User: Fold these one by one.
Assistant:
Number 1:
Amino acid sequence: MKLSKSVWQTYKEVPNEAEIPSHQLMLRAGLIHKLGSGLYSYMPFAYRTIRKIQQIVREELDKIEAQELLMTVVTPGELWQESGRWDKMGTLMLKFLDKGDRDLCISPTNEEAITDVFRKSVRSYKQLPMTLYQINTKFRDEIRPRFGLMRAREFTMKDAYSFHMDKACLDEVYDEIYQAYVNSFERMGLKFLVVEADAGDMGSKDSKTHEFQVTADTGEDIIIFSEQAGYAANAEKAETLRSGLVFEKNDGELKEVSTPEMSTIKDVCDFLKKDQHHSIKSLVYSLIKEEDEEIVLLQLLGDDELNELKLKNYFGADQVTPTPEHKLAKMGLPKGFIGAVNLPLPMRVFFDKAIDLEASYVTGAMKVDTHFENFRPSRDTKDSEAFDMRLARKGDFTLDGKHEVDEKKGIEVGHIFQLGDKYTKAMNVTVLDNNGKAKNPLMGCYGIGITRVMAAAVEQNYDDAGIIWPKAIAPYHIYFALIGKSEEIKEEAELIYKSLQNAGFEVLFDDRKAGPGFKFKDSDLLGLPIRLVLGERDFKEKGQLEIVIRKTNEKLFVTKNELTSKLKEVLEKC
Ligand code: ATP
Ligand code: MG
């Protein structure tokens, strides 16, 4: 491609809203064009990268006999009614009516659509297992679209779905797809972790789910991991132990202490000169399930945080939210001084597992400006249950108590999931098994955020000057800059450009009327693996061209004759 004929444009300034490097760099490097909130056009160079990412994924999936198809972006509401998700997807799903007043939506995901394809096309167990995939546009009306392509509203996803007669077969294909994902992300040159993820209300107890997380400081997900233990899980899901805590054990009676205006755990513990794990934090939560709401009291160690997802899963709730302050007041619960003793109304109380129920703690006394000392859960509460509801964090230990865990941030680029018969049951899909009996097949679903992968690759590969593309997904391999004005050198450049193209190199030819400073800045910003410079003076005097490796800034001079072989050699190593 010749830059003189390209729409490409770089920018010095970036809009303030671009908070993270990949978003800033992709805007500055003219790779994406914003049309509206969470809506981006992929400009030609970005689109080349996107196609390369797609191709890698495609090749790895085709290797395991998955078949590519393309479904519609708009799906009928009827299908979602059938699966029961029409009212469950919330505002994420963009719904609308057609001219005949029929419900439609722009697909946020495609389980319903693929299940419909399957039920109309497959009859016999002999055709299974079957894996189908597409690479298509998705729309999710995200609450906070941000970080450019990382959390866009319209984006490209590769979504795959597999169908099976039994769990053993689902497990087998799941493992194959897991491996295909590992291969894909490795080929793209990304550093990533595969982590255990939350199955939410979708999966049954034995259904597996993993996320593929590209590690980056700006990632929105937290990964809890221990290399020695071979453990990695999304913090949403991670189960760990607190370590080395010594609790206070005494026979003291419950004792009121005055804690005027001290409504935070920190204030109270500082005042009483105690570490925060000697206190219990009380959280009042509303659990919403279908039409019902139950308000419960949660008890955690003072320095722990609640993991809302664990709460939601434990109760199988549709939604869990902290009960708002005005409601607490109406119920006679004094915010900041709530505890499990002297509850003004019947309410179930739940303790986090990290709490030693036989130890003594400071806790709210259910009276303004007052706390209790010597609150012993086993003695002072009745019928309470304990479960793991805390957010795992760095410094905890693995469940066997042997390894300390650490934290890293990650960008979720892929997610694989065993769905079981959720959709085939709801949508009444059956296949005859080898005894002629109709069975609901089991399903797996497997997503890769193609456009998010591009953003994640930039987030992991850049420096002060710009992007440093991993070779496998770079828009082009060589940025060929002509530095010179004479007709002679221009002709020479044209010849070299042609010969490189003929030799099969992916070359971007900067033939614009601009000086070296301008061209080199653009070249660094765009971040192709190699810059090749044809400088008029060097070429005339020494017959040389310069090769610069973007990643290492290594430079070497080559003659025209050895150019192709040298470029091959250098690219090989990039
Ligand atoms: P997240 O937790 O980041 O919102 P998700 O778990 O809802 O993502 P999935 O339903 O698992 O997403 O979708 C499969 C893949 O699609 C994700 O792993 C991610 O790479 C990508 N993806 C999801 N939402 C977006 C988005 N808003 N913009 C870009 N890519 C996305
Ligand atoms: Mg996910």
Note: The pocket of magnesium ion (ligand 2) is lined by residues 412, 415 (CB under 6 Å).
Number 2:
Amino acid sequence: MTTDYRPMWTNLGLNLEAHDALLGVLGKMYQDTYLAQKNRPSGMGYLDFVMSEVHGLRIKELMDAKAAGRKIVGTFCVFVPDELILAVDAISVGLCAGAEFGIEDAEKMLPRNTCSLIKAFFGFKLNKVCPYIEASNMIVGETTCDGKKKAYEIFKGIQPNLYVMEVPQMKRTQDKELLKGEYARFKAELEKLTGVTINTARLKKGIAIVNNRRKALHRLAVLRAADPAPISGLDALLINQVAFYDNPERFTDSVNKICDELELRIKKQEGVFPKGTPRVLVSGCPMAVPNWKLPSIIETSGAVIVGEESCVGERGTQNLVDDSGTTVDALMNAIVERYFKIDCAIFTPNESRLDHIKTLARKYHADGVIHYALQFCSPYVIESYPVEQALITDGIPTMRIETDYSQEDIGQLKTRVEAFIETIKK
Ligand code: BJ8
């Protein structure tokens, strides 16, 4: 960052000392994890720029938009429909919660055996280091896992503009009705926040922007089926992470440019790793920025990641919203239909997730699956057993990993991952 953003951060109420410390750690991590990679597509230069300005230029854009009367809506879950946020001309930002920062402060309010993701957003808030949280006019929580659901009750005390959306836990007709009711309530709340009434044209536009972003990410996903893989799993993950807070149209454009470049690479049989490198599908909890620990271990241990069954990945992007409706009601129903298919482990039963993992493993020619669960995340830790059983029955080697955001277990994880990669080598 060349511009001095300190006055902006001060205005946002950030703790500059703590914020400097966070940026210092992030910069070093990015250098060691991303810039140290070889053979990266040149289009990743855009992502490097976005990351270098993640607390700078992007926040300035948000503040300029706010000054022009637009609202910022921060979200934690892919059940929050961006289409509605865009339809009221607000800006949606995914709040990352992917780093261990201020955990000791978080643990004064939350039990120690809470997952790292929840502790992270408390830590960021309590230490005043996240400009996205501070810039948001409204933050949307959701009743997914018990951890988040109960933590939001406490979070509301330190983040009064928190709005909580109910998400069903089963997939019956009445559950779809519940989601429909919640999306109607959310629509009304957004209309109240912005003073904008959602009409058909506005909703169609919101749907088109988000569908286009998904299509670009689907295009990227499919290109990773090539051997040699044209892009590293780390870079593909970064693209999926940045999708949550970059300007959606500019982002979609950049991803499509990267895909053009990857198509050329595939034609020339160029890759980031040699042809025949063991291929891994990662499945499980979402990996928010800057949670790159496990992918980095995998890709420095002789394998390439070819897909993510994750909310920061294909669980989050699969399926488009049908945009053919001609009324707000019809389009709202189409949004409900699309989101109701998300197969997060908070649902019971959750057979479609097992099918999706198997499908992705075959589609991307994965030699094995690594199931990643954050420690104390009951939904994903418990579901990892049936996932492993189903994959093994299908002849797909699988390893289950449970970890947190700390760096302490890196050596141990690396030993396990290396041993797994040895077993899936052709
Ligand atoms: S739709 S995965 S983004 S809830 S890791 S906080 S589940 S204890 S993040 Fe998620 Fe929405 Fe589901 Fe996706 Fe709880 Fe688990 Fe922590 Fe989690």
Note: The pocket of Double cubane cluster is lined by residues 77-79, 115, 117-118, 144-145, 147-148, 285-286, 311, 342, 344, 346, 374, 377, 379-380 (CB under 6 Å).
